[in-house]
Amino acid sequence: MKTIDFVVREHAGESSTGMIAAGEPVTSLEAGGGREISLNLRQFDISGYARSGSNLEITLADGRIVVLQDYYADDGNPGSRLFVSADGYLNEVTLVEGNDGVLYAQYGPTSAWGKWTPSEELIFLSEAEVIAPEEEDEETVAMLGAGIFGGSGLLGAAGAGAAAVAASSVVAGDDGKATIQPEVTQKGDIVIGGDDAGPDATPILISGQAQPGSTVNVTIGIQVVEATVQQDGTWEAVFEGAEFPADGQYVVDVVVINPAGNETQISGPNVVIDLTPPQITVDGGQFGQGVFVNAEAAAQGFEITGTGEAGTSIAVSVAGMTHQTVVDENGSWSIGFDPGELPEGDYQSTVTIIGTDPAGNTTTITRTLDVDTVAHPLEIATSLIEGDGVVNADEMADGLSITGQSEPGATVTIEIEGVSQSAVTDATGSWTAVFAPGDLPAGEYDTTVTATTVDLAGNSTTATGTLRIDTELRDFAVTSQPGGTDGVLNFTELDSGFILTGTVEPGSAVTVQMAGTTVPATVRADGSWSAGFREDQIPEGTYTATMLVTATDAAGNVRVISDTVNVDTDAGLLAINTGEIGGDGTVNADEAAEGVTISGVADEPGAIVTVSFGGVVRSAVVDASGNWEATYTASDIQSGVYDAEVTARLTDAAGNSTDVAASVHVDTRVDNLNLSDIDIATSADGTDLINNQVAADGFVVTGTVEPGSTVFVTLGGATRQAVVDDAGNWSVQFLPGDVAPGEYEATMTVDVTDPSGNASTLTDTVTVDTLVNELRISDEPVETDNVVNAAEAADGFTLTGRVEPGSAVTVELLGKNYSATVDANGNWTLDVPAGDIPAQELNIDYTVNATDAAGNSSSVTEPLEIDLVPPDAPATVGYFREGGGYRSATLETTGDEVTIHQVDAAGGVAQLALHASEDAFLGETDYHFLDGSGAPTTIPDGSELIVTSADAAGNTSSSYVVLDETDTSVVDLSNPNLAGFQIDSVDLRFGDQSEMTIDEAQLAALSDSTGSLVVRGGADDAVTVAGGVAAGQTQVNGEQHDIYTLGDSGAAVIVEDDINVIT
Q1: Buried-most residue among 95, 791, 792, 915 (CB within 10 A)?
Q2: Residues with Cβ < 8 Å from 371, sequence gap 6 or more?
Q3: Residue 831 contacts by C-beta under 8 Å, 6 or more apart in sequence?
Q4: Cα–Cα distance, 236 to 579 (Å, whole number)
C-alpha cells in the first residue's frame, strides 16, 4: 500500500492538501458545504462506491475505505464535487443510483494540466499506484470474487460492476454450450497526438469479444460507434473522420447487447487525444518597428522570452544558431544569447521559434531581428564658426550656426555650455545646428562644442571642438556733459564750440554723432578719449538733439551710448491742438455738457500760457513734457451751431513771447429727425401689422434725418443700420426671420447720431401677428367611427372643429373645396351633401385650411374612410326540414356577419336566434334556429327567410329565400315589412312552382343601394316584371341570366334564364 495525495478546495476558493495514510483501513474527510475534492487516483484504483446516510464511502482496490463526510446535502443530492486525477488529467466523478440502489460511477474529462487554469490546482501530475502490477493467484481472485458477490461490506453491486471488467472468459451457459463473456481487447492507455495525427491519419480502434450476434455500442466522449459481433465472437469499432472524438481524456464505455436483449456494460482503456498545437507567445526580445540589436546590446548579450504551455519544448534559431529550452511550470520560457554571439554589421535576420508539446504538436512563430552595430561617422568644424572661430555680441545676437559632417539622414545633437540643439544631415551628410540669441551666456571665454549622433539602432558617436566667445566691450563711458551743469547749450556755449570726453577698452575706436555731424575721437593707449565740435557744426534754435557715442572693440563688439542735448537759442515754440478739442475738433452737445479741454504744446516747461475761447480766458502751465491744457465748463460754452475762435500766448524766462490762433466748430443739436409710415400688411379691421407673409418676405422702414448721420432701427430684438442719402433720407431693410413669430405688440426704436456725435431717439409700436393661433378638427369621430357607410351617406355627413375666431375655413375633400361656417367663438362646421359622396370604398385624407384676420394661413389633415359598397348577398346552399317546419339553413361561409329573419305566413318579420356551425371542408356554415332559452327549435311551414350579410362598415345586403310552400306558391314582395333589409336578390330554387311579380316601385322599396334585383330559380317558376323591357343577358356566378330594365331610373331585374318571365 502507498499513501494517496488529495486536494480540498473550499467554496470561497481556498485550497488545502493532505495524504491518505498507507496503513489506515478507514480514512474520513470533511466533504460538505460546496467543496471540491480531488483524489490522486485512476479509475481502476477504485473498487466501488456506497452511500451511508449523508456520507459517501469509497472502497479502493487495495481494500482501504475513504469516507467523504456530509457529501450529500439535505435535499439528497451531492453538495460537493468529487474528482480523480493522475498523469496530469482531471476527471469528475458522477454517481448514478440504479434500480437496485447500487451506485454506478461515470467519469467525465474535465481538464488536462496546462490547458485550463480554473481546475489547475486540482490536477495531479504523478501516477497513482494503488494497484500493484503483479498477478494474483487463483485463491486471491476467488477471495476478491467472494467479497464482490457475497460480502456485506462497502463493495456491494458497484464493486461487482468494477470486478466484472477485470477479466473476461468463455464459460458454460445454461444449455451447456460455450458462452463468450464480453471483454475489451485493449488494456493499456491509448494516446494520440502530434502534427501527423488526426481523424483520418490515426483512427482509434477498439476491439474485443462477445457472444456472436450481439450488438456493441462503443462510446468515447460524445461519439458512439456501433459494432456487430462476428461469428468467431470478435468485434471492432473504429473512430475516424467525423466520428473521431475531440481533444480530451476519456474512458471508453462499452455496452454489449446479446441476442437475448440483455445488456452488459464494461469499461475500456483510457483514451487521451491531444491534436491541439501548443499555445506559445513571444513577449520579450529585440523585435518591432525601430527596435535593433545595437553594438551595446550585442556586447552585453540579449534574451528572447515568451509564454506557453508548461512542458512545451522551445527551439529558437537565429543567424545559424539554435538554442533550446522548456516552458516552466509557470508557463514562461526564455533563451539567452551570449555577448558577441551575433555577427557584427548592419543586417536583418529571421528568428524562428518552434514550440513542441509532449504530444508532438508544434507551433511555429517567426520574427525579424534587426542588427546594427555600426555607428555613424561625425565631424565638427569649430574654426569656421563666424569665419574666425570667435563669436562677438552682434554675431551672438543673430544666432550661432555650428556645422559639420555625418551620415546622411542622421540626427546630430550639439551641446555648448549646457545648451543643446539638434540637426538632421542632408543628402550629402552636412548638418547645421542653430543656437538662438540668448541660448549661450555672454562674456569673454573659451568653450567646448560637443556633437553627438545616435543611429536608429542606438549606436552613439561624439566629436568635440573649441570656440571663443567675446561679447563684451569693457570700460566704455562718457565723462563730460555738453552745455555745462544745466545741460543746455545756450548761444554763448554754442558759439565757442565744445569738447566731449570719456573712456573705453584699449584698442577700440570711438565716434560721436550730433545734429547730423559725426566726429572721430582720439583714443589713447590707456583707453581715454576726446572729441571736439566747432560752432558751425551745431545749428542754432530751440531743440533737443540726440547724441550718439559709438565704440567698436577688436572683436567687433559695438556699444552705443545715447544721450540728449538741449539747445535753446530762441524764445520757443507754441501750438494749439485744435483737432483734439471735443475729440475731433468739433464740440457736440454731450461734450459741451461735460466740459471741454483745450490743449497744446510748448518747448518752455514751466512757462505760463494764456488761452481765450469764445471770449472766456483761462491760464495754463507748460509741464515737463511740454504739454499744457485749459478746461472750460458747460456754462462757458454757448449752445447752437457756430465756429468759435481760440487764441494762446507764451512768454519764456528771457521775456521772448509767441502767439497762435485757431477756430473750433460748435454743434449741440440734431436736425430734421422723423419716422415715415411703415408700408406693411393691414388686418381685417384696418390695423397695420406684420403678418407671417410680411415677416417671411422682409420689409422696409424709412424716415429723414440730418445728412451724414448714423441711424439704427431696432424692432422685436433685431437691430438694422439704415442707409442715409445725401439729402438726409434714410431707409432700413428688415430681413426674413428678423421678426420673431407670435402675436404681440413690438416696440420699434430709431437711434440717431449726427455727424457731430449728437444722439436722438424715436419710438413707435408695431402689431405683430404671424400665426393662426388655433386650428383643429374635432376629436369626435365622423359618424362615430370615422367610417361613412351607405346608410350614413344617404343624408350626408358633417365635419366640425375649432379655429381662431374671425378666420375663414375651407375643406379639401373628395376633389372639391368646400367653405365651412365659422361662428363668433371660432367653431367651424361643414355639411357634406349626400350627392357628393361616391358609391365606392375609399381611404382618403381631407385637409382643413384656415386664414385668420391678419392673413396668416394654416392647415391640418385627417384620414377618413368611405365605404358605400354593400357586401355580396348571402348564398343559400340548403335548409333542414323537420316535421312541420324548418330547423336550420346552410349558407356559403364568408367573413361577413350573418343574420336571418323569418317571414311568417301573415307577412310578419322577426329575427331568429342562431347557432353557427362551420364546416371548413365544404366551406359552408349551418345556422341552427334557437328558442328564447337557446335550445334548438323550428319555424313552421309557410315561413320564408331574409338572409342578411353585414360588412365591417355596416353596409348590408339581403337575399329573400322562398321555401317549399305548402299553402301557396305566390311570393309577395309588396310586403311593407321588407323595407330596410336592402334585399337585392330573391332565391326561388327551394320553392315549388313559385310565382312572383315585381315592378319599379317594389324594386325601389326593397333596396336603395344597388338599384337591381337578382332572381334565381328554375323552369317551374314564373316571374312577372311589370313594365319590364328586355335588355340582354349577363353571367351571375357562372349562370346565364336575362336582364329586364324598369322605367327611366336605371333599375333592373336580372332573372336566371330557366325561369319563365312575363313582361
Answers
A1: 792
A2: 292, 293, 298, 342, 343, 345, 346, 347, 348, 349, 457
A3: 796, 797, 798
A4: 123
Distance from chain centroid for Cα 73? 50
- DSSP per residue over 475-500, as a string? S-EE---TTGGGTEE-HHHHHT-EEE
Is there a single domain that holds both residue 646 and residue 601?
yes
Q: What is the grid cell recorded at 750?
A: 430709431
CATH, residue 401: 2.60.40.10
Quote the pLDDT of residue 486: 67
8 Å CB contact between 242 and 199:
yes
Question: Hey, which residues does 282 pair with through a beta bridge?
Answer: 306
Cβ within 8 Å of residue 17, ≥6 positions away: 5, 6, 7, 8
Q: Check if the beta carbon of residue 643 is closer than 8 Å to that of residue 624.
A: no
Domain boundary at 217, 244, 275, which?
275
- In this structure, are 737 and 612 located in the same domain? no
Residues 53, 72: Cα–Cα separation, whole Å: 8
84 lies in the same domain as 144: yes
Q: CA of 998: how far to CAs of 970, 984, 995, 1032, 1042, in Å? A: 12, 12, 10, 18, 15
Q: Which alpha helices (DSSP H) does 74-125 contain, by range? A: none
Q: Are residues 231 and 349 in the same domain?
A: no
Same domain, 954 and 1043: yes
> Helix 138-149 crosses helix 156-164 at what angle (to 10 degrees)?
140
The per-residue pLDDT for 290 is 57
Q: Dihedral (C-alpha) 597, 600, 601, 604: value to the nearest 10 degrees?
A: -80
> Is the model's pLDDT at 536 over the cut of 70?
yes
Q: What per-residue confidence (pLDDT) applies to 215?
A: 95
On whether the CB atoms of residues 782 and 867 are closer than 8 A, the answer is: no
Total tally of structural domains belonging to the chain: 9
- Count the alpha carbons within 13 Å of 71 in the hemisphere toward its beta carbon: 24
Task: Provide the whole-model pTM.
Answer: 0.39
Mean predicted confidence (pLDDT) in 204-209: 94
Write down the residue that cell numbers 562718457 correspond to. Answer: 478
Last residue of a domain, one of 255, 275, 295: 275
Cell of 213: 450476434
Helix (H) or strand (E) holding 353: strand 346-356
The C-alpha cell of 822 is what?
A: 365659422
E strands, 101-201, are: 103-112, 170-172, 178-180, 183-184, 190-193
SS (H, E, C) 595-657: CEEEEEEECCCCCEEEEEECCEEEEEECCCCCEEEEEECHHHCCCCEEEEEEEEEEECCCCCE
Burial class (CB in 10 A: 0-12, 13-18, 19+), 25: exposed
Q: What is the pLDDT of residue 752?
A: 93
Interior angle at CA 740, CA 739 and CA 743, nearest 5: 105
Residues 156 and 22 in one domain: yes
What is the extent of the structural domain holding 132? Answer: 1-167
Residue 1046 and residue 953 share a domain: yes
Q: Are residues 911 and 1055 in the same domain?
A: yes
Q: Which residues contact 437 (CB under 8 A, 6 or more apart)?
A: 396, 397, 398, 399
Q: Please, how many CA atoms are within 13 Å of residue 538, restricted to the half-sphere of its CB?
A: 34
329 grid coordinates: 511550470
| Residues in contact with 102: Cβ distance below 8 Å, sequence separation at least 6, in sequence order | 156, 157, 158, 161
Give the chain's mean pLDDT.
Answer: 85
pLDDT band at residue 1052 under the 50/70/90 scheme: very high
Those residues whose C-beta lies under 8 Å from the C-beta of residue 320, and which sit 6 or more positions away, are none
* Under 8 Å between Cβ of 280 and 314: yes
User: H/E/C letters for each residue in 904-941?
Assistant: CCCCCEEECEEEEEEECCCCEEEEEEECCCCCECCEEC
Residue range 432-437: mean pLDDT, rounded: 92
